[in-house]
Each structure stands twice: as structure tokens, then as C-alpha cells.
Amino acid sequence: MNIAVYPGSFDPITNGHLDIIERASKIFDKVIVACAINPSKKPLFTIEEKMDLIKEATKNIPNVEVSSFSGLLVDFCKEHEAKVAIKGLRALTDFEYEFQMALMNKRLAEDVETMFLMTRAEHSFISSSTVKDLVLFNASPEGLVPPCVIEPLKNKIAEKRKASNGQ
Question: Structurally, what CATH architecture does the domain formed by 3-124 represent?
């Protein structure tokens, strides 16, 4: 079986992420969307919430599985018998960082390849951070995130706003 891993923080999943997942699902027998647990970051959503949103957003793509991981991506790939790590790119600045990571991963695991997929042009400006900022300032995330993300995102931002106001 030809298995690929698409890692990320997905806080929250965006239409850019979904574009990469959909296209990768046509190339590989199985795509594991791997939600990274990074203790140095302060995510808006819990790992469970992010995984639930990804599952809902990808429910119509039969060969997609959702998981989480902490530690090295190459170890996760080996554990799941994946020979490819998919990295989505929006711009040249993404490539510089991801290229360095791909070289390090290759050094750590010679048998795990990195595949770069460019997101479609209409999604190239979307990032999870930008989407969260828009909602924080009362702009609609419609068209930027899957429909199942909109209300949970608005609710999380409202909770964050209340907490920062001491309510």
C-alpha cells in the first residue's frame, strides 16, 4: 500500500489544507493527516478538537485517516509504514523552511521522501493564523475554511475574547 503522511498543526484546518489533502488522496492509497502536538505552541483548539474538525472536513474522502503525533515526523512515518511526507507550499518562503526540514528528515530517515505540493492559487494567501485573526476582528472566515469549521472557530475566538477581558 502506498501511504503518505500530511503533517501540520491544523489550528484550524483551512481550505488550503483541504486542497492538499484532496489532491494527495488521488495520488496515494492512503493519506494520514497527522496533527502535530507541539508543546511550545499555544493552539486555539485542543488536539482532539482539531482532529474532529479534520475528520468532519474529510469525511467524504474515503482514503484519508486522521491521527496525531508528537516527536519526529520521520518516526511517525516509519511507525505507519509511510514512505512519503507531504508538505504543502503557499509561497517561496514556505519552500525555504520546508526544504531545510526535508533535508534534515532525509538525513534522519533515508527511506522517507518529502513531496511538495503547491496549493492552488486561490488558497495561496490562506493561513490558520490569518483566519484566526480575521475572526478575532469580526470578519467572516467563509470560503477560507471548510463550513464545519466556521462555528467552532467563532466560538473559540469568542471564548478567547471573554478570557482576555477577564469575564
Answer: 3-Layer(aba) Sandwich (3.40)
Told to judge if 17 belongs to the known catalytic residues of this protein, a careful annotator would answer yes
Number of Cβ within 10 Å of residue 157's Cβ equals 20
Whole-number pLDDT of residue 163 = 80
- The answer to whether residue 58 scores a pLDDT higher than 90 is yes
How many other CB atoms sit within 10 Å of the CB of residue 141? 22
Q: Which of 25, 123, 128, 156 is catalytic?
A: 128
| H or E segment and range at residue 36 | strand 30-36
156 is catalytic: no
90 is catalytic: yes
127 phi and psi angles, rounded to 5 deg: -135, 155
Residue type, 134: L
Domain limits, the chain? 3-124
**Orientation angle between helical segments 147-164 and 128-136, nearest 10 degrees:** 60
Give the mean pLDDT of the chain.
94
The gap from C-alpha 160 to its chain's centroid, in whole angstroms, comes to: 22
What is the rounded end-to-end Cα distance, in angstroms, of the chain?
52
pLDDT bucket at 166, cuts 50 / 70 / 90: low
